[in-house]
Write a structure and sequence with these properties.
It is a single chain. By secondary structure, the protein is α/β, with parallel strands linked by helices. It is built from 18 helices and 13 strands. Helix 3 links the parallel strand 2 and strand 3. It is elongated and about 65 Å long. The protein starts with a helix and ends with a helix.
């Protein structure tokens, strides 16, 4: 007769690394989905509070990797490389059944390459933007990953053509944004008149973005206010530092009397409450689209950086809604063209054209449906064959 130890299913271990807050959210959802299928799973590696709450053993806190900007990365480079060496040694000495790197490609792909070379199956969850630039990275990715999990369907053929096992699992934002209140409820929560004209301004989440766009967004709001003084503006900002930078821009531009509210977070509520959105190119543009909000996309960066990047992209678009649509469905006003006059005119045109707004809302609803797959469960199901191999 078999002993209880022999009857008990073997515990399996998954090594997992997330490099920033968005990865912590993805990781916690994936841990939950995997444990729902295989309860006898242990998770260990680098994560944040959400992953730790989901039952992961955190060897190093996520904040050690959450560094942005060339100077910050250079300053912390020695420490980050030291963490990667220690993690590599640990996983090679005590191999997990599978390793999952969540985004953070500069950290994870190198670690994945070493682990895969030692026979450990590796999964990378969230594709680097190789479809936009640096497609030469595909050769290194092929050596690093056993399986790539993508958030967008157009990424699949890029990897498949390179001979990389790939699966589209859907975008987790579609599941999260289902819980965001609609326009009327969002306005009630934010104490806004239901009948008001509201514009959400999202100048970016990083201090480096605010440096180049805070004044531009304030001046755009002033230009709109001169033409439509009853318009209300919402500006959600995620940190005290970015909030202080935007408030300084209001002061510099003598815009203290604008009908403008700076929110501490609540970006999705602000977009849901708005009639139209002005957003810096990035994840906020996808959030706005999935919430069905017409928008104008803009971006400014240092002139030298723009000159270096010019001509290196594979696509003519900056914004994810246009990339997903494969055409310019919303205006993109970039770099030198990004003036208060151009941006304010584009936003006013959207506000004045109900036919265009309705068309965009329908287009965005179809876009949301195309990305909604139940990302966490699909990602878990994609990992299972490697666990059972």
């Amino acid at each position: 007769m078999a002993s209880s130890a022999e009857r008990a299913p073997r515990r399996r271990t998954i090594g997992i690394v997330a490099g920033e807050a968005s990865g912590d959210l993805l990781g916690s959802q994936l841990i939950g989905a995997l444990r729902a299928i295989l309860p006898q799973l242990d998770f260990t590696g680098i994560g944040g509070p959400r992953m730790q709450s989901a039952g992961m053993e955190v060897l190093f806190p996520l904040e050690k990797l959450a560094v942005r900007g060339y100077l910050e990365v250079a300053r912390h480079c020695v420490g980050i490389l030291g963490i990667r060496r220690r993690l590599r040694r640990r996983f090679i000495a005590n191999p997990p059944d599978v390793f999952i790197g969540i985004d953070a490609p500069d950290f994870n792909l190198g670690l994945e390459r070493s682990l895969k070379a030692h026979g450990i199956p590796t999964v990378h969850y969230v594709s680097p933007a190789i479809w936009m630039w640096r497609r030469e990275r595909l050769h290194g990715i092929k050596r690093s990953v056993s399986k790539m999990l993508t958030l967008f369907p157009f990424e699949v053929p890029v990897y498949r053509d390179a001979g990389i096992d790939v699966e589209f699992v859907g975008h987790p934002l579609t599941d999260i944004l289902d819980q965001v209140p609609g326009r009327t409820a969002a306005r009630e929560q934010l104490r806004l008149p239901v009948s008001a004209t509201v514009i959400a301004l999202l100048p970016g989440s990083r201090q480096s973005e605010l440096e180049h766009m805070a004044d531009l967004f304030v001046q755009t709001a002033k230009a709109i206010n001169e033409y439509a003084p009853q318009t209300l503006f919402l500006v959600p900002l995620v940190t005290r530092e970015t909030r202080a930078m935007f408030e300084a821009a209001l002061y510099r531009n003598q815009a203290g009397d604008l009908p403008l509210t700076v929110l501490f977070g609540h970006a999705q509520d602000a977009m849901s409450a708005a009639d139209v959105v002005l957003a810096a190119a990035g994840t906020a543009t996808l959030e706005a689209a999935l919430l069905g909000r017409p928008m104008v996309i803009t971006y400014k960066m240092p002139a030298a950086s723009h000159w270096l990047l010019r001509g290196k992209g594979y696509l003519p678009y900056y914004g994810l809604p246009n990339i997903l649509a494969g055409e310019f469905v919303v205006p993109e006003i970039i770099q030198d063209d990004a003036t208060p006059q151009n941006l304010s005119q584009a936003l006013l045109n959207l506000l004045d054209d109900e036919v265009v707004r309705v068309h965009l809302e329908r287009k965005f609803a179809a876009m949301s449906a195309s990305l909604q797959r139940g990302a966490a469960r699909r990602a878990a199901l994609a990992v299972l064959p490697l666990l059972q191999a």
